User: Fold this.
Amino acid sequence: MNQTAAQGARALLPRWVVPVVPEGRVLEDHAVVVDGERIAAVVPVAELEAGHPGIERLELPDRVLIPGLVNMHAHSAMALLRGLADDLPLMRWLHENIWPAEKIIMGPDYVRAGTRLAIAEMLRAGTTCFNDNYFFPDVAAEVAVASGMRSVMGMPVIGFPTPWAETEDEYFRRGLEFHRQFVDQPLIGTSFVPHAPYSVGDGAFARIAQLAGELDIPVHLHLLEAPGEVESSRAEHGLHPLDRLDALGLLGPRLLAVHMTQIDAGDIPRLARAGVHVIHCPDSNMKLASGICPVADLDAAGVNVCIGTDGAASNNDLSLLAEMRQTALLAKVSSGNPEAVPAARALSMATIHGARALGMEDEIGSIAPGKQADLATIRLDRIETQPVFDVISQIVYAVPDSQVTDVWVAGRRVVESRELTTLDEAEVLESCREWQQRISTAIGDDPGGT
Ligand SMILES: [Zn+2]
Assistant:
């Protein structure tokens, strides 16, 4: 299969290996043996020749090898809307800017071009897997497979017509068609992505709960993102959103709850008991002034917290390195505790915790024999990351994306010395220029636009 491009065994020899499990460990003078799409061994360099005589060696001096980062909340195609509307509250940003723009440009061509731009950016920033929430997941999945990137693509459900589907039934029909089309594709997983409790009805949620159980897939949902959502839910449904989801059978370990800035201390034990995964998007929450997810308290209570970038229209980049840093910093300033979310914990949240939430903990998220070879190397010999007292501290607090040098997904080298091997960078840039023009023209012509 060309997307996994199985190759013979070779040994990667970085200066350091951060396997992520166990948390905080840094290995020196170790080789990571990759055979085909999987990691075959992690061994001291001194023992490499004995166990793997004559193996091809790839020297990676001054580099640290980490598991590929897992971006747990993306709207990839929105990379084309980066910087379209900034400095607005969530509802005005959505209703007056983003949704009118999407209404005009939405379709397979836009999703193809936007997803390609997002993937190019994410791969070059060390991200090897993303959990996507957007329309035309079939188109996005084709782009992801062609790019050699791993992803979980959502089947969208929202309570109004869009170019993807007119009616609730059509959302389910098209989503399930997409699921059947890609269910056997090794780099693609699927999920349900109901937009939010305020935009999806009880009937659709109940149907999602049943189907997600039957298909054994996650439900990826914007939840308690911004102020007012509890009050409006009480007014419309007579229930707190968590009570409503519970009654509809959705408050459980399938639920990937994105944002969660509007929760209080009383909600935390309940989320932990239910096994809900929380996806923290600090840049987006800060930019839209949505609020602060109490990450340190959730983590202490045993909730699996992972990290996402959200779409580039509300971030405005897709850097998980930046998001890790923001996670660690925001947890400290919001709790008044500089020990909250230490660097190694932030790195776990951006890797193994995401893998766990997706039900892929045995396959990705750490460097261990038997796992998929989803890997990234970061060079630490630059001005910005010298000297190196603590490798994990450098990764979380100092490394810019531009120091990610090489990336592998399922053993395939998709970034080589910062060059994309599966995407044509010039073509991606040219397509961005064309879409900027098309979007500007479309919005300029539309009275509902900005
Ligand atoms: Zn989002």
Observations:
- The CA atoms of residues 257 and 278 lie 5 Å apart.
- The radius of gyration is 21 Å.
- The first helix runs from residue 45 to 51.
